[in-house]
């Protein structure tokens, strides 16, 4: 039972309410010592020779439900002392009945029961092996003796030295996969993902990840190769892989090309979106100039003041310069002036986006509405695509005029 909090209803009761809840008799006239002796040595109603044992003490606030949940979590706590004992059993080899023979013809003593429990593959090997002079000999070739020693030690106590792990992590990954030790495999993958991979060994890690069924590690290797392909492709590991596994090298090159294509496409779309945003801002600034006026340019019925604060439309200043050039330019033949041509395009784009041509104050809005009927289907399709893109940007970022007005 948890200790009561400050807001507990019991703490809000006064003495009178407690007194009314229970039948309490006062003992002012009796000797308190007699009462204490009666409590300490109660008399039995059955027999004077038997005494009732004392009640156990009340639970303290330490053993509360708040600190000790009713249901323990599904995990196991392994004390350091327990790990140390298993580590000691492995290192001393007391009662060993197995010899693990390594590449250097070294013998590592072990216990068949521990190996069978820790690795089902080793358990099958031990079951099929015959003992000679009370000892079973099994071979783990192809890896350094120190790696086999670290692997066997992990089977006993899950202990390892970080320096050894870092030195033989690739060998331990192979051993953990070959002999089905998932905990060690996860540990090796974790350490390599946390920065133990380098440009020199990433190709080796990639090939092992492919053979040892480690898809996440394989993906991380591919991403690292794509990111720094120029330097990694010049390493010795890449050259060996190119000779031994040309198909894998071709897949990696295709991944790099695909990643570059995606990057270029992403940049192209970003630039394209930037153009549409600029066109949207130009449309908003054009409406602002023709409807409200901006400093020295605007409709004739507006009183303009050069001293007024500049507006918050980013495209307003550039558009104001373009409008002034358009009104004063003498070269107005089609294709004669780049700036005037750009202004014509902005006016036509506005006309195609405008829903109120009769009341619109932008010049030539009605003119371009009538001109649309005379355009070819090819030009009409191009303009519709452009209008749809600008409207999509307008919906995505919201009307610029509303954003700018909030800044005023």
Automatic annotation (TrEMBL):
<dbReference type="GO" id="GO:0008270">
    <property type="term" value="F:zinc ion binding"/>
</dbReference>
<keyword id="KW-0479">Metal-binding</keyword>
<keyword id="KW-0862">Zinc</keyword>
<keyword id="KW-0833">Ubl conjugation pathway</keyword>
<dbReference type="GO" id="GO:0005516">
    <property type="term" value="F:calmodulin binding"/>
</dbReference>
<dbReference type="GO" id="GO:0042542">
    <property type="term" value="P:response to hydrogen peroxide"/>
</dbReference>
<feature type="domain" description="TAZ-type">
    <location>
        <begin position="270"/>
        <end position="368"/>
    </location>
</feature>
<dbReference type="InterPro" id="IPR011333">
    <property type="entry name" value="SKP1/BTB/POZ_sf"/>
</dbReference>
<protein>
    <submittedName>
        <fullName>BTB and TAZ domain protein 3 isoform 1</fullName>
    </submittedName>
</protein>
<feature type="domain" description="BTB">
    <location>
        <begin position="96"/>
        <end position="164"/>
    </location>
</feature>
<dbReference type="InterPro" id="IPR035898">
    <property type="entry name" value="TAZ_dom_sf"/>
</dbReference>
<dbReference type="GO" id="GO:0009751">
    <property type="term" value="P:response to salicylic acid"/>
</dbReference>
<dbReference type="Pfam" id="PF02135">
    <property type="entry name" value="zf-TAZ"/>
</dbReference>
<dbReference type="Pfam" id="PF00651">
    <property type="entry name" value="BTB"/>
</dbReference>
<dbReference type="InterPro" id="IPR000197">
    <property type="entry name" value="Znf_TAZ"/>
</dbReference>
<dbReference type="InterPro" id="IPR044513">
    <property type="entry name" value="BT1/2/3/4/5"/>
</dbReference>
<dbReference type="GO" id="GO:0006355">
    <property type="term" value="P:regulation of DNA-templated transcription"/>
</dbReference>
<dbReference type="GO" id="GO:0009725">
    <property type="term" value="P:response to hormone"/>
</dbReference>
<dbReference type="InterPro" id="IPR000210">
    <property type="entry name" value="BTB/POZ_dom"/>
</dbReference>
<keyword id="KW-0863">Zinc-finger</keyword>
<comment type="pathway">
    <text>Protein modification; protein ubiquitination.</text>
</comment>
């Amino acid at each position: 039972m948890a200790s009561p909090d400050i807001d507990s209803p019991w703490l809000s009761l006064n003495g009178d309410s407690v007194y009314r809840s229970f039948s309490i008799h006062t003992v002012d006239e009796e000797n308190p010592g007699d009462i204490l002796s009666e409590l300490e040595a109660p008399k039995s109603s059955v027999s004077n020779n038997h005494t009732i044992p004392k009640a156990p003490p009340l639970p303290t606030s330490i053993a509360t439900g708040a600190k000790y949940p009713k249901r323990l979590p599904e995990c196991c706590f392994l004390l350091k002392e327990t790990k140390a004992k298993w580590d000691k059993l492995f290192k001393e080899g007391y009662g060993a009945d197995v010899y693990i023979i390594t590449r250097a013809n070294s013998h590592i003593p072990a216990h068949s029961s521990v190996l069978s429990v820790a690795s089902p593959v080793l358990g099958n090997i031990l079951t099929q092996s015959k003992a000679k002079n009370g000892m079973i000999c099994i071979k783990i070739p192809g890896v350094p003796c120190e790696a086999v020693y670290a692997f066997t030690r992990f089977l006993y106590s899950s202990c390892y030295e970080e320096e050894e792990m870092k030195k033989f992590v690739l060998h331990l990954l192979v051993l953990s996969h070959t002999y089905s030790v998932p905990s060690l495999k996860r540990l090796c993958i974790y350490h390599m993902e946390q920065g133990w991979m380098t440009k020199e060994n990433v190709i080796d890690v990639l090939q092992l990840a492919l053979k040892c069924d480690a898809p996440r590690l394989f993906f991380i290797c591919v991403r690292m190769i794509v990111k720094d392909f120029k330097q990694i492709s010049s390493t010795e590991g890449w050259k060996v892989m190119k000779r031994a596994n040309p198909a894998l090298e071709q897949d990696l090159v295709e991944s790099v090309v695909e990643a570059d294509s995606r990057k270029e496409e992403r940049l192209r779309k970003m630039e394209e979106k930037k153009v549409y945003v600029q066109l949207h801002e130009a449309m908003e600034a054009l409406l602002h100039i023709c409807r409200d006026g901006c400093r020295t340019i605007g409709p004739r019925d507006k009183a303009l003041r050069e001293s007024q604060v500049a507006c918050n439309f980013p495209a307003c200043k550039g558009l104001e310069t373009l409008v002034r050039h358009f009104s004063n330019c003498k070269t107005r033949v089609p294709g004669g002036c780049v700036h005037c041509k750009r202004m014509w395009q902005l006016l036509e784009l506005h006309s195609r986006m405008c829903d109120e041509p009769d009341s619109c104050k932008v010049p030539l809005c009605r003119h371009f509405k009538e001109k649309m009927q005379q355009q070819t289907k090819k030009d009409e399709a191009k303009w519709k695509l452009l209008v749809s893109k600008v409207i999509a940007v307008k919906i995505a970022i919201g009307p610029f005029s509303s954003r700018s007005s909030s800044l005023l």
